[in-house]
Write a structure and sequence with these properties.
Length: 330
């Protein structure tokens, strides 16, 4: 059964417009986070949520907020994105990211990039400076060079922790087939936000799954799977077993329930449960609606997440299996 946190705010709350406030929610990946990484994960998502929130407070857009929050997570070696990403079967970093603007449905993504410290910002440049939605591998790098995005030697994105984990696991062949409730997996990052104007945005960034085949691209940079944002329904960022998320187009599935009048918490639970039943996939999602209703939901053992809602930071350093909160504000 999916666990969920939700402020319990009713979508049709008549007072909501008069007290419209900005909300940012971030996740640091849904998986069986080991105890030794738990504190760093919770601290990291809290710091990233505060980063996104301060952008909103300064009058920045939801798009600016999700980019800032995800950049903070990419720069934090505790997470599987940017610096600290997992390694593929050849021991290389291959990074994927997406960003989407709910005002216009504009979206940008990059996949399989190796020497970019903040793929989310390159994804934003794809969205804003090209006529395309996704650039991959060499093409993404050529584009980065053409617009002056600084590249870094791929080795600088490697951490000692990840090198050791990769050495430990490289002989296993299960890779992308495991169910994400083991400590095999790692921690993709994402953010969703709504700004004071009611515009929503999402961003997701990842190194993918440890020991993945060279060139494997998961759900994270794929529009409708790893993320989606539409001012008419809400914004979603997903994490978990990428092949399962792709099969059920999880982000769009969640928003299709929202469009039919379900709360963001129920929509997330129903969709994650569907993914578990239909393709035996585990994962998690964060969702925010244009009216500021939000939820953080997961079917894995743990998911690090944090939210800033009406200037209140919400997160939960709780024992295994109880990382969801039910925060009822009604
Ligand atoms: N969804 C990511 C992928 O499959 C992994 C994750 O969320 O941890 O690439």
């Amino acid at each position: 059964m999916a666990e969920s946190s939700s402020p319990g705010m009713k979508r049709e709350d008549p007072d909501r417009n008069s007290k419209m406030s900005a909300v940012v929610v971030v996740h640091g990946g849904a998986w069986a986070i080991p105890d030794q990484l738990a504190e760093a994960s919770v601290d990291g998502v809290k710091a990233a949520a505060c980063e996104g929130s301060s952008v909103l407070k300064r009058g920045g857009s939801a798009l600016d907020a999700v980019e800032a929050a995800v950049r903070a997570l990419e720069d934090n070696p505790a997470f599987n994105a940017g610096h600290g990403a997992t390694l593929n079967a050849d021991g290389e970093v291959e990074l994927d990211a997406i960003i989407m603007d709910g005002r216009t449905l504009a979206s940008g993504a990059v996949s399989s990039v190796k020497n970019i410290a903040n793929p989310v910002s390159l994804a934003r440049a794809v969205m804003e400076k090209t006529a395309h939605v996704m650039l991959t591998s060499r093409g993404a790098n050529l584009f980065a060079e053409s617009i002056g995005v600084v590249t870094v030697p791929p080795d600088t994105l490697l951490t000692e922790y990840e090198k050791k984990e990769w050495e430990k696991h490289k002989t296993y062949v299960t890779g992308v087939d495991e169910d994400f409730n083991t400590q095999w997996a790692h921690d993709t990052v994402g953010a969703v936000a709504v700004d004071r104007a009611g515009n929503v945005a999402c961003a997701t960034s990842t190194g993918g799954i440890r020991n993945k085949m060279v060139g494997r691209v998961g759900d994270s940079p794929v529009i409708g799977a790893g993320g989606y944002a539409d001012n008419l329904s809400g914004a979603v960022s997903c994490t978990g077993h990428g092949e399962s998320i792709l099969k059920v187009t999880l982000a769009r599935l969640i928003l299709s329930h929202v469009e039919r009048g379900k709360s963001v918490a129920d929509s997330s639970q129903l969709s994650l449960q569907y993914m578990a039943d239909r393709v035996r996939g585990a994962g998690g999602s964060i969702v925010v609606s244009p009216s500021g209703q939000w939820a953080a939901t997961f079917t894995t053992d743990r998911m690090a997440w944090a939210a800033v809602d009406q200037d209140v930071l919400c997160s939960l350093p709780a024992p295994r299996g109880q990382w969801a909160i039910r925060r009822l504000l009604t």
